Amino acid sequence: MSNFLTDYQYYENGGNSPQEENWGDYQYILLKDIINKFYLMYVGDDKVISDCKRYEVIFHAKRGLQELNYDVAREVKALELDLPDNLTMILPKDYVNYVRISWVDDDGNLRPMVMNNQSTIAIAYLQDNNANILFDNNGDALEGTSLTEINSANPKSNNLNDSGSLYQYGSRFGIDGKTANQNGKYIIDKNSGVIRFSSDVRSKTIVLEYISDGLSDLAEDEIRVNKLCEKFLYQYMKYEILSNKYGVQEYVVQRAKTEFKAIRNNTKIRMMNIRYDEILQSLRGQTNWIK
Amino acid sequence: MINDIYNLTKFILNKESRGYITPLQFNTFAKQAQQEIVDGYFYDYNKASVSRVARANDKQILKKTRENMDVFISQPTDLTPAYDGMAQVFNQPNDMYTTINLTYNGREIELLDRDKISYHLQDDFSGNNVFYPTYIKYANTYKVFPSTIVSGVYLTYFRTPKDPNWTYTVINDNPVFNSSLPGYQDLEIGFDDKFEITMKILKYAGLNIREADIVQAAVAFEAQDNQLQNQ
Fold it and tell me: Does B31 fall in a domain?
């Protein structure tokens, strides 16, 4: 993390454990350093931001980091887990949204799955024989397990297009491309914090690729951000602080907003990792016939 | 500097046999006058800070005032923990004038807004941890958050000026200045405030001996001085 590591400190961690402690760290800067630098360079009697509480700066720095992870940096994390018999996978604790869900085949390739839009996770109230809802002593409805959940875990049919046929009765002329996937389906139950899978992937190893907000699992002085995004954070913090500060002229706020938008676009381009040779490689295939 | 001012004060007061100032009276008046001048440093500093854009000359005023104030800045002091009956607190030093900053493990402890304490303590997103500690001041104590911080809190502060003491030895029934005696304390204000403190001491001395001319002259000098500074 430091700019002043010797080669021995970098490669061998100075003989300490773990050896890989400093590998690749140079691409990152700590959030606490960004907050310090922001105070030094952007806040002062002779600056546009004359004064600002530190907790406001921390708040905007972290919010900026979250926005960065959602929209700009998109550093995708991946988690691999064996699917249990109930075909349910618990969401990672730093999960914010998913990118792709796949299972691993025998060759180590990922088989992407599709979202099952034709089912849902419903709340199931317990009912008596007359279909009256049952309540507990507090007057709250008693809840049971949803039938969609039970049946999806124990399907009676393996026909992938069965669920689709209900909507296509009498008018089915071809396969529904949207759901035509032999790799299986899943439903994300956000409230319960789980992903439920179809039985196609029973006993498979699932890989969940997802994005987080960059804040989880890290102590305050361990939170870090890629150096290509450093300026984005400064401009985000500056704009947010100025736009919420009383008495700041509107043209100052607008200038900060324009600067922020410009650096956001710039950072997006930087983080896209567009490389000349990769584009060239893709274009080389353009003369191939698409059948 | 204290002996020069004592001699000047005595000379003006004794002129035309108006009166006499004892060393005890002088020390008392000098203490009060010095405190007023130090209070004025903070006023000048704030005024020059506010008008920093309009007047380039204020940079020099800021620099000079800051130099005068630097004399009263303490070294970082390890605060003594105490218990206020409800929670752990840290006592402020006896000679404190105003807080500059508090630190813990080299990190600044930030002063909380009183009206936002409860909101802040429920929020672990924007600080309120050992990496970004905060404090609030109750009477003469500091309460630091989070409460796991029980020691190692360092305070840097402006201290109050030391009480000036013109020490003397009596020779032939006359007090003669002797700076080598225990308890001697020179004035701590800047050299350029020598005239101002003399006027202030004369004002108090004039009131003491009920000499209207002295008071009026001293007040007029002070007013003129203020006017010049405000230009």
Answer: yes
B52 interfaces chain A, CB cutoff of 8 Å? yes
* B55 within a domain of the structure (yes/no): no
* Nearest-Cα residue of chain B relative to residue A66: B125
Q: How many other CB atoms are found less than 10 A from the CB of residue A47?
A: 12
Which A residues, 260 through 289, put their C-beta within 8 Å of a C-beta on chain B? none
Q: Inspect the interface and report whether the beta carbons of B126 and A32 lie closer than 8 Å.
A: no
Task: Tell whether B134 lies on the interface with A, counting CB pairs under 8 A.
Answer: yes
Q: Is A33 exposed, middle or buried (0-12, 13-18, 19+ CB in 10 A)?
A: middle
Its pTM stands at 0.74
Going from the C-alpha of B144 to that of each of A32, B99, B109, B133, the distances in angstroms are 20, 14, 8, 7
Domains in chain B, number: 2
Pair B209, B222 in one domain: yes
The whole-angstrom separation of Cα A1 and Cα A7 is: 13
B170 shares a domain with B129: no
Which of B159, B190, B219 lies at the terminal end of a domain, its last residue?
B159
B52 lies in some domain: no
B210 and B170 within one domain: yes
Judged by CB atoms closer than 8 Å, whether chains meet at B127 and A58 is answered as yes
Check A55 against B129: CB less than 8 A apart: no
**ipTM given for this complex:** 0.71
Per-residue pLDDT tens, chain B, 231 aa: give them: 888 888 888 787 776 555 577 888 888 888 888 888 888 888 877 777 666 555 666 677 777 778 888 888 988 999 988 887 777 899 999 888 889 999 999 889 999 888 888 888 888 788 778 888 999 998 889 999 888 898 999 999 999 888 888 888 888 878 888 888 888 888 888 777 787 888 888 877 776 666 666 667 767 777 776 666 666
Is residue A46 within 8 angstroms of chain B, CB to CB? yes
Which residue in A has a C-alpha nearest to residue B108's C-alpha? A54
Determine the residue among B126, B128, B145 to mutate to test chain A binding: the one whose Cβ has the most chain A Cβ atoms within 10 Å.
B126
Q: Structural domain of residue B97, as residue ranges?
A: 77-159
B165 CB near a chain A CB, below 8 Å? no
Residues of A in contact with B120 (CB under 8 A): 55
Same-domain check for residues B81 and B142: yes
Per the CB < 8 A criterion, the answer to whether A164 and A118 are in contact is: yes
Single residue among B159, B185, B206 that ends a domain in this structure = B159
Same domain, yes or no, for B155 and B167?
A: no
Is B99 among the domain residues? yes
Q: Distance between CA atoms of B122 and B146, rounded to whole angstroms? A: 11
